[in-house]
Amino acid sequence: MLDRIGSGEWPPLHRIPSEHKLMATFGVSRMTVHTALSELARDGVLTRVKGLGTFVAPPRSHMTIVRVSDPAEDIRQRGAQYACDVVVAMKRRGSAAELASFNLPDGSALFHLVAVHRENGAPVALEDRLVNPAAAPDFLEQDFTSTTAFAFLMALSPYPEGRHVIRAVEATERLRTLLALQPGEPCLEIERTTWTPDRVVTVVRLFHPAMRFELVGAIEPR
Amino acid sequence: MLDRIGSGEWPPLHRIPSEHKLMATFGVSRMTVHTALSELARDGVLTRVKGLGTFVAPPRSHMTIVRVSDPAEDIRQRGAQYACDVVVAMKRRGSAAELASFNLPDGSALFHLVAVHRENGAPVALEDRLVNPAAAPDFLEQDFTSTTAFAFLMALSPYPEGRHVIRAVEATERLRTLLALQPGEPCLEIERTTWTPDRVVTVVRLFHPAMRFELVGAIEPR
DNA sequence: AAGTGGTCTAGACCACTCA
DNA sequence: GAGTGGTCTAGACCACTTC
Question: Which secondary structure element, helix H or strand E, spans residue A152, and what is its range?
Fold first, then answer.
């Protein structure tokens, strides 16, 4: 069936034969046809409507899937040496804007971590993280040079939902110093908010030196 | 089953009961159990190994899915006015590096398009695109102010595969001018290579002003 | 050899769409 | 009312893993 779509024999929006007809065409049972069609529909190649039929999906817009994981893991996987400097690790009162993103009342406290991740000594990421104390009460007792905040929080809330924003930012004086940036070198910023059904767990901003970092992803169906 | 995983009754890496046991537990047929488990495996919640068993997937690294579509569509969808200036549209001999990314022999010709996309008059993207003439012989005859190159190529090769690289870049003099950048403002660059089973179709680099553009995505299973 | 998941069959009932 | 896809059943054979 993929061949027929790829060859243009079944163009976008074309209605393909019904399950019963495909049974006869391919000489298999209806469950087999159905499973195959359902998988293609799940992959975004087909669109199925009960009572109506199965259609070749319209040309999809590109989706890129970017994996964002633990900086420490990434670095070690590349066979490089990982190190981490903790710049700030404290409990403090959140600003109004910060608390709004956690849906917490005014005056609540947040944990604040700032850390620099290094690959073979060179800084590759500045992590600026806020954590909801309710989600990880003993967050500050961790030794972040051995376990990253990412790994610690993932162990507590293994299946979070969340949202990313990726943008380019001009380097501030602080970023220039902490990330050892070249003059004029900007940063790639990834802001990530993660939550469980109960609460917002953490809001983290990762700043990466433009010249030493890029996000790679595949274009995928869907 | 999702409840049991979410509640921690089945922690990450836990081996869950076999299909036969789940048949009995839930009082359904094996096909039903199998379909449910396969779907969860496809969603990245479970890992299945033939002959071994079914396991709760380890905490997943975050995957962000970023939709990258036609700049014109995005802008119109926001209710803004779209316009496009074509800066360069020509056929020329490709450099060695360019031809290498197309897997074309030395000396081959490529189409080269440079265009500025505007939202309500303000430039939001500089498109620098190379196109394989074999994939779109009449590319240069298009009126890119009415149909974007993206839309045109998607119509010719509706189901491409591809690869993205996202990075932050310092603005060059040319970018500063064409995108009307603020002094010191960097760009977010999205480089996208798309191919069909036959050939590399196009390599495009989109430069976005840092202050007027960000990529938003959801953290998803898988 | 026993247990696992992968795949398939031939039939069934249902909810839905459209004429 | 005819045709569509959604879901389920009870059984089967296979390839693979582990003991």
Answer: helix A149-156
